[in-house]
Amino acid sequence: MIEWAIERAKKRNAHLLQLTSDKNRPSAIKFYETSITNFDTHRND
User: Fold this and answer.
1) CB of 33 within 8 A of CB of 39?
2) With contact defined as beta carbons under 8 Å apart, do 20 and 8 qualify?
3) What does the DSSP assignment read for 15-45?
4) Residue 42 falls inside a structural domain
5) Domain of 13, in residue numbers
6) Residue 11 banded pLDDT, cuts 50, 70, 90
7) Exposure winner among 2, 4, 8, 21, fewest CB in 10 A?
8) How far is CA 23 from CA 18, 35, 38, 40, in A?
9) 36 vs 4: CA distance, rounded Å
10) What's the total number of domains in the chain?
11) For 5-22, what is the mean pLDDT?
12) How far is the C-alpha of 11 from the C-alpha of 25, rounded, in Å?
């Protein structure tokens, strides 16, 4: 699903694709960090 969202954003000339996750879900965040090229973590800890 993530790849689909990235491709759709590219086709629509998006400049930003934002994914949010609760900071209490470290395994989900780790998955995103390792699965997405150019993933930038912006955390409000």
Assistant:
1) yes
2) no
3) S-------TT-HHHHHHHHHHSTT-------
4) no
5) 2-35
6) very high
7) 4
8) 15, 17, 20, 15
9) 12
10) 1
11) 86
12) 30
Q: Which residue has tokens 């090229």?
A: 37
Amino acid at site 3: E
CA distance 28 to 14: 24
* Single pTM value for the model: 0.52
Tokens 């934002």 map to which residue?
18
Q: Judge whether 10 lies within some domain.
A: yes
At 8 the three-state DSSP class reads helix
Please list, in sequence order, all residues whose beta carbon lies within 8 angstroms of the beta carbon of residue 29, skipping any fewer than 6 positions away.
Answer: 21, 23, 41
